[in-house]
## 1
Amino acid sequence: MELYLYLALFSPLVGSLFAGLFGASPRTKIAGVVPSLLLLLSFVSSTVLLIYILSGGEKVHVEMMTWMATGDLYIPFGFVVDQVSVTMMMVVTLVSTVVHFYSIGYMDHDKGFNRFFSYLSAFVFSMMILIMSDNFAGLFIGWEGVGLCSWLLIGFWYHKESATWAANEAFIMNRIADLGMLIGIFLVYWNTGSLQYDHVFATVGALDKEVLTWMGIFLFIGAMGKSAQFPLHTWLADAMEGPTPVSALIHAATMVTAGVYLVVRANPLYDLIPNVGLFIASLGAFVALFAASMALVNRDMKRIIAYSTLSQLGYMFVAAGLGAYWVALFHLMAHAFFKALLFLGAGNVMHAMHNELDPFKMGGLRKVMKGTFIMMTLASVALAGIYPFAGFFSKDLILEVGFVEHHYIIYTVLLFTAGLTAFYSFRLVALIFHGEERYKLFGIHPHEAYKFMLVAMSPLLLLAIIAGSFKMTYFEMVTAVLPATEYHVHSTIAYWIMTIGTQLFVILAIAFAYKKYANNKVKVPDGTSKMENRLCYKILSNQYYIPYIYEEYLVKPYRELSTVFWKQVDMKVVDATVDGIAGIIYAGGEKTRVMQSGNLSTMLKWMVAGTIGLLSFAVVFGLAVRYSGEIKTILSGLGV
Amino acid sequence: MFEAIAFYLFAFLTTVMFFIAVTTTQALHALTALAAGMIFISAFFFILGADFLGAIQIVVYSGAVMALYAFGMMFFDTTRDVKEKNGNKYIVFGLSILAAVLVVVIFAAPMVTNNIVALHPMIEGAGNTQELGMVLFTKYLVPFEVAAVMLLVAMVSGIVLAGKKMDLSLTLMSDAEIIDAKKEQHKKVL
Amino acid sequence: MEIGLNHYLVLSTLLFAIGLIGVMRRKNLLLLFFATEILLNSVNIAFAAISHYYGDLTGQLFVFFVIAIAASEVAVGLGLLIVWHKRHGNIDLDHMSTMKG
Amino acid sequence: MLNHILSILIFFPALAAMLGFIIHKDSIRAYGVAIAAIEFSLSLWLWFSFDSSASGMQFMEHLPLVPAFGINYILGVDGISLFIIILASFFTMIGIASLTDTKNEKNMIVTLLFLQMTMAGVFAALDGIVFYIFWELSLVPMLYIIGAWGGPLRIYASVKFFLYTFAGSLVMLVGMLFVAYFYYQATGTWSFAILDWYRLILPESFQLWLFAAFFIGFAIKVPMFPFHTWLPYAHGQAPTIGSVILAAILLKMGTYAFIRFSLPMFPDASVFFMFPIAVLAIIMVIYTAMVAYAQEDVKQVVAYSSVSHMGIIILGTFALNVEGITGSIFLMIAHGVVSGALFLLVGVIYDRRHTKMMNEFGGLAHVMPRYATIFGLMLMASVGMPLTINFVGEFLSLLGFYKQSHILTLLAGTAIIVGAIYMLAAYKKMFFGEVTNEKNKNLPDVSKRELLALIPLSIITIWLGIYPKPILAPINNSVESIVQLMHDKSITNEAKTRIPNLVKGAEIAKTSEQGAH
């Protein structure tokens, strides 16, 4: 099994290096095909591992080599495949294989084609390290690695100012969270003496509650950055500047879920600190609602999906925070499938619309893009959580968790958010595919994407539809390592009322969205309509003014403070002090130069004065030696 | 008693002479007073039993040095009053007295009076000159020779420095020649 | 009225002070030399007295060397003085300011 | 020959430099590269014959200079100094190899070889006076490099550099003399041997003063806030090769000396001053990172980033445990590699455009993709990306200091944020966006000669990031002996608790002391 582990782990790296070799040369198909095939290999290996684990195999644990060893610290490159990581491996390799093949078509005309595949495969490699590592340091390698690749990929079109800005923002914001993560790792090390998961989680129970709480908080801060939880969420929407396959892979399916993975992975820790868990759940619920509300009015197709991702991440954190780790992981998996599908569909639309992102400028595309239309609709249905699609099984389960755990506020918030989710998803679908063909106003001639791109997307479609049916298999597998709590509403009637009520609510929201946006009266908004001038619309469309606040109250002051530090403090205080000291000596020389008047008589007087000075020294020191005992007593009396 | 009287007498005389030497406006007076002071100082040497030094003091200082000064003064216009335009007398006197007081304090400090062991104790029954000679030509032979060489060098340099154009004798020259020589000298200087 | 070392030292100090006064107030270089001679002599007295009272000949030897040095100093100094006088026509200290910094 | 390899390492380049004067101008470059390559291979040989399982000094040489005052020519290396010596010879080699159109090339190469002598001397010396001599001598070639080949303000910069560091080291010299005097008082014999000094147990009050005296000398060299202002001038005016050597090696003298002198000699004072120094280090990290962000000149960004990273090194040093000190030594090497590479990279663009202002550039990634890639790699190393060399050092340093103070480590950890901010901002200004300046349109990408210097550095950056063990293990052994020595020597209870006791290391510490004789 170790062979498969290494295959799964390193074939993306090989792919990345292979594509990297062509980095500077002009576009060659092979630079895209080879990494994709290698990823397929990785996927197959992961599948083999999954089957092995499913058939009751022991977890695969290898230690490749020592990384750092000093003092008591010992960090190896160790990898583990257990029920949790194999789930993640499946998700990552599957989605990335699909995205790779899709990208061969999508990036067809881009001159950075080779570079793109190099970055993308490097990302997959980092992600694999993140999920397969058997210790926190290895996790951190992957954690930073995906951050780096995300920076490279968001800023892929580096000639665009907005892209590079977004890349830097994402990187720096992640870094803020990574600091929390790092501190969490330090805490773990100094309290348990190791960073290996096995050892840490075995000893964590014996620790002080306060220490555990801090540990949990700092690790979660790390998770907040990667998973773009409030208040570190702004980067995710801006990250949509990157190529769409990147958004599908990194900013929907895999990287952003790393935070959830971390919490799930550290479940023995979080089990011991339910308070932190509750905080995580509350934050998750808040983010779910918060992000969904922003998605309601946004006019950027990709941003809408990004906010939806954010919202779904909130769901996952609710589950993870409430101790339903397997539910969180399950939703993570299901979400990865339909959200990646949604993004790839959006990529097709963008291609067709020549990179137009405003859905109000589209409309009626279902006639020309049948395949994409079906896929996006089904993905949206899955996202909305309609039976029997994947979302129903995973998302409704989270609602149930909230209900069963008696956190009714969270439950209500999530339920409401489910309605919002359905609304904005179908608002998008309606605006893009139904109604009048508004794109004609802009002189665009849309066309369907390459066939093989649609074929590449089909596995995702299939999974988005049927993933729910794996629920029990999955449950049995993963609960070998995660707490096996089943969440059932006790009374059957209440269960049915809840389920049907939710379904009805969601369907109503969908119907409302269709009614409002799928007709021919929809016009391209020009800022004059009544709704656009409402306060709440403005707040929502400006993302609660949070980016603005960050820009005004964090970024600008930082920039100005930096300039002040440089120009005022460093140049005018610190350096000036040093120069001042030198200046004093120099000026002293200039002043005392007058003493050297050249007049011998004056100089002789100075000589006498100098003699007197020396003689006085002799007297003073003589006296000091003579009376040293007395001086010491006086000084000690003064407390010197 | 005799020693005390002699000490105070000569102390008074030297002080006065030296004081005249530094304050008078007449160069000749100063020279005379200095020479007298030197001779009086030799008296201290005799009182202290350092006969050899006393003799040297008279010979070298009062004789050679003073003679040199007297010669030197012949070059300069000594009849004229010496102008002393000192800005602040208080500084001069203040500094000097301060220095004197400090020196006294240092010497009077008890630590100086203790712990001094003679390196070259006086030899009983030998004259002062003999004693000095024995030390000087044994332990201090090299410094002595160096001092001798130094004196020789000083003598040569003194002659070389002062003795340019010594081959011209003013008394043997006619007036015209003297004027020419002076002109030539001025040219050189300029 | 025993005359002790301190008497000599005080005398020596007094003469030293007089010498210093001379050094500081004389503007005529020749008279300045006189003042330095006074300084040297005052120290000589101190040396001789210490030598006497401690029964140590080193002091007297020092005096000897000081006198030798004083003699050479006068020889060289006067030579220089004469050269200077020949060049500038005066030996006034205030005119010697080529060492102005 | 192995018995005298350290002397050979030190004096071979100096002799070669003197011979260099008679070499013809056209062949001086080949000569310099050859000498530096021999020197580098000698240092590699040193490494291969180095016994990395031992913690004490190796290759000791002993030659009396002034026996009456215990001044001896003592040399030796342990895991701490070994790699810095190798790094120094390595940078001399690639520095000479990558020299581009320098006027008076001969003088430059001769100067660099002299500089190599002083650098090897500083890190190999085990006698206070010999150390001091090399320490001061190292100023002279650098002064000459800045003053003769620098920018328009070169005289100001070089004089400032010289006087500032010189003033600091004089205070250090006074401290050294006092330690030797104390040794004389305690034992009746004079000794300037560092290993002898290690055995002195100084009273705490003496330690505090001596620590302060040494601190001033070292802190200016590091340079620590607020003594850092000579560095931007020196870097700003120095030619590329000067900046590279200055950042890669010369700055490390300060931090190395902290570990060699301050910690083992004054353990109690180290504990006493730990928090004030940590606060200074944190100010250094954050403040200079912010200043770096405000810079308009890319070389100044790198210069200030050096100061910022040195803050982490100081912090790791004063963690006073094995993890932290090992990390800080590793970070010295890492920072040497990375900042050296960054200065070389800045030199590459300066050679082409003769400006270092970032607003002159933009969109360079289009024009010079290979350059952008290598710069990106070094940038990521500089911001501490895992699997690059810097991360190992930074991680260990911060990890070590976390044991001492949580809050301060949290503050110092912001280095990874602020570091990312200025580096990414600089990278964005230079490489991203459209090519706006006409002059940049046809810039040639990195040449073969430049790659010769940059590729090895890139390889080291990644190789040691993934597999730091060959370096980490010897460092670890030597550090363990030092930490144990500190623990054994410390007087105050505070120090006893702050400095961990490594029971297994006790034997090693003793043998290293005996090795001194």
Note: The first strand of chain A starts at residue 60 and ends at 70.
## 2
Amino acid sequence: MSLLADLGAIQPIHFALIIPAVAAGILVLIPGYRLGSQINIVSSFLTLLNALAIFHTRPEPNYYLFVDDFNIYLVVLTDFISFTTSAFSASYLAHEKETGRLTRGYARFYHAMFQCMILSMNLALLSNSLGLMWVAVEAATMTTVIMVGIYRTEAAIRASWKYFMLTSLAISLALFGITLIYFTASVTIGSGPAALAWTVLRDNANLLDPAVLNVAFVFAFVGFGTKVGLVPCHAWLPDAHSEGPTPISAVLSGLLLNVGLYALLRFKMIIVGNGLALEPGPLMVGVGLVSLLFGSLMLYRRWDIKRLFSYSSIEHMGLITFAFGMGGPLANLAGLLHMVMHSLTKSAIFFVVGHVAQVKGTQDMAKIRGLTTSHPVIGWLLVVGVISICGLPPSGLFMSEFLLITTTFSREPILAVILVLGLLIALGNLIPRLHALAFGVPEGNLEPLKTAIWPLVLHLGLVLGAGLYLPEPLFAWFQHVAAMLG
Amino acid sequence: MLMTDPKLKLEICYLLSGSMAIVSFALLYQSRMAATINTFAVHALLLGLVVALQADIQAEHNLYLTAAIAVLFKAIAIPLALHFIIRKFDLHRTIEMVVSPGLTMTAGLGLVVVAVMVMRPVTVHSDALVTADLIFAMVVLLLGILMMITRRNAITQVVGFMSLENGLILAMAGVHGMPLVVEISVALTVLVACIVFGMFFFRIRERFSSLDIRHLESDGRVSQ
Amino acid sequence: MLDYVLIGAFAELALGILAVAGRRYGAIGTVVYGGCLVISTGLVLDSVAVLAGVGGGTPPTAVLPFGMPWLPGHFRLDALSAFFLLVASLGGASVSLFALGHSRHPGSHAPDAARILPFYPLFLASMTLVVVADDALMFLFFWEFMSISSWLLVLSNHREKGNDHAAFVYLMMAGIGAGALLFAFGLMAGPQGHYTFEAMRAASHSHLLAVGVFVLALIGAGGKAGIVPLHVWLPLAHPSAPSWVSALMSGVMTKIAVYGFIRICFDLDGPLPWWCGGVVLLIGGITAVMGVVQALMEHDLKRLLAYHTVENIGIIFIGLGLAMTFRFNGLAALAALALAGALLHVFNHSVFKSLLFIASGAVLWATGNRNMENQGGLIHRMPGTALAFLIGSAAISALPPFNGFVSEWLVLQALLSGTVLPQWLLKVAVPVVAAMLALSAALAATCFVKAYGIVFLGRPRSAAAADAQETDRFSLAAMFFMAGLCVAVGVLPTPILALIDKATQLLTGATMAGAEGTNWLWLVPISAERSSYSGLVMLVLICLAAGALRLIIHYVLSHHVRRRSAPWDCGFPDVSPNTQYTASSFAQPIRRTFGATLLAARERVTTPDPGDPSPASIVVVITDHAWQLLYVPVAQAVQFAAGWLNEFQNVSIRHYLAFMFAALILLLLVITPWQ
Amino acid sequence: MAIISESLVQLLQVLLVIGIAPGLTGLIRWVKARLQRRRGPPLLQAYYDLARLSRKEVVMAEHASWLFRSVPYLAFTSVWTAAALVPTFSTSLLFGPAADLIALVALLGSARFVLALGSLDIGTSFGGMGASREMMIASLAEPAMLMVVFTVSIFAGTTFLPAAAEVVRNHHAIIHVSMLLIVITMVIVALAENARIPVDNPATHLELTMVHEAMVLEYSGWYLALIEATASIKLVLYLSLFSCLFLPWGMASANSTAVEVLAGIGIWIGKLGLGGILLAVFETCIAKMRLFRLTDLIGGGFLLGLLSVILMYVFGNI
């Protein structure tokens, strides 16, 4: 149809979509899950290489796909984390298969879906056309819904049903917002693909009708905000995280939330570009703070370890939204930094949690004790992960929270106080949990479990490294994007 | 010969999209499941007609495809499937609404007011048809959501969801020459089709005796 | 100069990594602690050299590629940093020496070294780097790093009951303090983010902003130092760590916190109103009294010492508050005097508190028990430790001619000069604080009579105490090194005051009269006719008198005989060691006098009926009001909020959809007016 | 020349203090006995006691440590040193500059510190009881004494004792309201520190009421003699301090002739005797207090002292 016609000649950028698509096709046909998981890893790695290639040589943007400073780093991050996750899920699935929680057929299905997920997320990030981005986000939702329900336990089906209902309503709202944008753009810019192309919209934002933009932004905010997991549209997130396979939880927290936020930020940039429309900052600040407080308060009274950390994701997404809502070079910088660091840390934590849950055979925190004694490596990695997620040095999140809190307090003291209050509430819950999980007299199964440790070592290593020193080019580029966000 | 008059086409288009809103009200009012499904079929049929008309008016041939999808899937296939499920699970009982129909209708009226209030100033610069189309689309959208949150039953919730999707397609068809409409409508249909049929219902039939999502709601352990 | 500091600190970081790498290797403990000892000793020499003026006037600075490229790690070593570096590395050296000996024969109850060795050097390194940090990011980074490494050290014997709670409270309070400091630096850095200390010094802070920074610094740094009512973490966390780590936490880390307070309030922050100094003064007085009274109620040796840390921090803050008020009123010389007193007490306290903690560590190792009620008679079994502990006790009780007396004497002299302050409120506050200081000094003496008498004197109250063993040579060497320092500084305080004078000149622009070192024998704070003190003269007098006495007794009473027999005790039959006074019975009069009011101490005595052989029992309930008034309500509020919000987590999908819908409609209605 | 005279005076004072102290104790005992219609011991009984004690053999508990044996030395020497620093009959002493009031109080404090330790060393219940009570009393008396010191030093603008004496002498300080307040405080402190009635009864042998006596129960022979001597020197010291601070008249100064010095000695002894007699009368008139009533008494003294200090700060030395 029109889309394929307009895509034009094959470029490196297309491989970001073609590789996963082909891999998915192959994986559906591969019966053996070992071979499948290897192919999964290989194709994810190829996707990562391709992403780096795109990073190196930017293709010409057209109305459908484009690359700029903002989305390319998310693409690289996405493909990197999907690569490590695929490696992790290989060992994870092996264990699941031994314990018989997953049949071979579903393992095959899992791998195919995993590639589809990468495909849709890459598409969502790379697409220049809002419509195409919407399709991609919707596809990503579908695949993850299926993944979440893959265990077919009653709880899993509940979770994915909830996930489906909430997110599909949300993206429908987002679609209406997109339609409205196109509507006003088609009046001034003229109908056709250009009127949906994000680059065009950003450049001609001042031509658009501010009133339409306001309504459109409200719809987009509620729609994509749900994907981000902002309160009060967050309800799908904990269930989806806690019931699905752990690699999927890692991808959800590490990547899918970012994709939602990315879409949201694009809309924000259009609104900001048009001078007359309402300022979206206060809305994002308010919702961000509410999500932060809510998430950190919800950490209490949890018994399921994955659910605990999924609420922590809500908290951090709130923090990032708050940062972008504050705006300004420092706050945006902090937001971008926090986005990356949170993705790496949280996915690493979910890796650890997956190991732990498999070792102990339960997600009930009351049954997990003294990991640093019984399983030193996993236990200490958990300690590092939780310290990092609490924003304590030497983790990169300390850097971002330092910037955010200091700059916010000098601008809006009250907001900063609420912010720190939320962070302290979270700290006050995560630390006793960490004590119980990692220290004390060990409980439960004490046998070691053979697992792929290197992905989470890699993640945490990156986080700690960033906390110690951010390379000059990376940082300069962060600053550039921050300036871009306005 | 009659349909050659563009003015008349606009009138009819206007009428049809307005009637979609009215049918949405009817959906909201319906308290019997079979009737709900039939009403939805009508809703989808109207959508197909509107989109086809828009395709004719805007000379956008892609829209014909969208119209066809709407009619074939939403107006025929899905209602049949739903009827099948009802018969299979023997759900010929009335739906217990969460709130009384009267109250629901009142809320619906309120939503119409909201839609008009929000959309009217938005569309002052554009022609009447687009204005009406967008307003009606938004009404259908909001009523669909209202239906989703006033029903307990999975089927009716899905029906509500599909009706709000009809509203979306209505809006997309209304604005001139929106690209990717076909892709998006396909995506929406796939959304409904694959999820509603492919996944949930079979699983749910595996697990639960009925479709009442009270089974699907609680978080399990309250002590979380 | 600064280069050596940085090299040393990073060498210590490397040692931490090495400890992880070589954890299987048996002698790793010796390597790590030996390395720390060497590095710390080097740092001591380095800091003394800086304070002695070697290497020119301008403080050396360095910029390392650390943190963020546009905010690289700035480091600077001025007199203040150098002095606190001296304190930190001196403590580090002696404690490492103790640990070196201790790690060779770990007791049965000791936590496994693998949980201590990696974090011990990190802890030292972070404390070193905090004092030389020269921008907000570096300062907070290492400040927090200090908290985390010590938190992990507290958790090192994690199997012990209650330690996790201690560690939690500790990290929580550290987090609160870090938040406050983040705010303070945010205020001083401004929205553009001028995070280097030079920029903050250069910036002209408004009156309100300066006060805000002061309050935040008091919460952040003061809380870390342990001022009332932010002290609650200290008596929990310090004793839970291994003894040598407790020594570092109490002796050095609290001093780093004091450094943070001085750096912010005296150096970076703008001019403060007069009442800020008054507030610090009063908080110091209250802290001193509360700390020592709580210490008296305590019969866990290490907790007792921890509470005394609170007391001494109070004394230090009294000095700081005085310095602030004097500085505000333009009395630079008096400000210098007060500040010098505070800084000297910083030095002294770090010395004798480390000494007491490692001595208690030796006791703990020997008897395997922290509870004083199970000790006794250790002076016979471990004479060296007993002597060292005695000197430490005398020093902390501010008895001449030991060092504790000198610093408290200086602070008292500063207080007595407070008559010149024009503000009427201060005219009332200063004498009250002086009274508090006098009271706390006297109570400290009482407390250490109790501690020393119960633990080291009398007869052993348990089998473990009865066959305790003297600790090893390294530990004894460390103890006697610090005991020697206690005596040396007490007898000749002028040299160390000459070093401190550099820092006071930096901050107050004036110098203390007696600090030039011209008058090495007499310590003359203000003027010769005002007051003067010479520990040496006092020591000489005492020695002369003792010598004369000894001669008299030796020659005149040379025929005297000495006979050993059962104790007299008014003829009562000596049943068992249990008839001795216990720590709690010793403290009973004080408990009745002070505890009842300050700590709501309640005693419940249950005596069995006549003929009932069951033993009588006394239960004492001590409540720290800070918990009841400050922390418990907050915790309850959070719990309540969590429970309330939790109700929304178990509703049906329909409701979640309704939330979303409501949000949408609400936002639409909000924007409508602007259309 | 000045050095020689100063050192001579210093030596003379050091010896005189030891020489006179037992006499003062004897005097007080004698006067009390007289007031109680007893014949009482001879005036020199205290000297006889010391001599007899120093001849007796020393009986010590088996598990007494080296600390126990060194306590009498330490206590005696520190009190003696303190006594050497107080201007008694002359304000020009060799070690005058070391005569800082705060240091003086601290020196007495260390004497108490070691005594308490010594009483705990044997590990008997009475020893512990004595130490506990003594320290409790001291924990209130010492701050009270410091309040006195503060008031005086603010008034005189110095903590340097001879100078303070000079100032007080020249300004008739005794009329100052703060000075009057601290006279009361000083009396209370002196009673408490010297274990006199109503705080403690030096003559008691009822174990449950003993404080100071309970501390030294285990000592015998010349150790006990030393401790007795310490106690009486302390009394002399306090009386001299009192006279130096509040009645500093008739003291010789730096450039005064031998005659004046002798006169000063005479006046000083007269003051001591007067003080002793007053103390005896006072002790006879009142009864000993219960232990926990003491906190009210000494605490009251402490608060009075604080009040006087505050007055000093607020009004200065008018």
Note: Residues 154-188 of chain A form the longest helix (35 residues).
